[in-house]
Amino acid sequence: MNTFLTPKEIETESMRRIAVGLQERGITIPEELQPVVYRAIHTTADFDYADNLFFSTDVIRKAKAALQDGCDIVTDTNMALTGISKVSCAKHGVQVHCYMADDEIAAKAKEEGTTRAYAAMTHAAKLFPSGIFVSGNAPTALIRLVELMEETDFRPRLVVGVPVGFVNVVESKELLQQTCLKYNIPCIIAMGQKGGSNVAAAIINALLYSL
Description:
With 211 residues, the chain is α/β, with parallel strands linked by helices. Helix content is 56%, strand content 10%.
């Protein structure tokens, strides 16, 4: 065991081991999806992401185009915001936003009897109607995005839906999948209960690193 590997050496070796692990499991990942799947596994040490990640048709190409155009990213947690590479974003003029801690969002959620995530998505959709929306924590964020797609002309260029948990998580992801397919909105979704802000950031970083 070499204790003193550099971060780059550790990442390279980790990706090699992921490739070996997938091969041992008899899993073949399409080449265009490999950066996202591998980084999700790398972030979680969980090979289930080889099976539970849903990709809409041509989503990788469309997502990269949105990032290259400097599309704004909205997250539902400051953890995801922090985890997304600012250096990579800066190369393409991408800005990342999270409104969960804003006082006005908290007040709006209390007034309307909703969650901060729900209120934050309402606010962000007005500011960035064709932005990239990334949820790693709150099912209500996905529910609100779906409502806005159904009720308005809100058409984000990419939705990453990977909340983690037990209550309304599976259902909100399935609803998001159906709605995105209905309106031809590019999406990447971790079906089932698994996910998290770290996975959300990993997916965006995988796309950014592959530009």
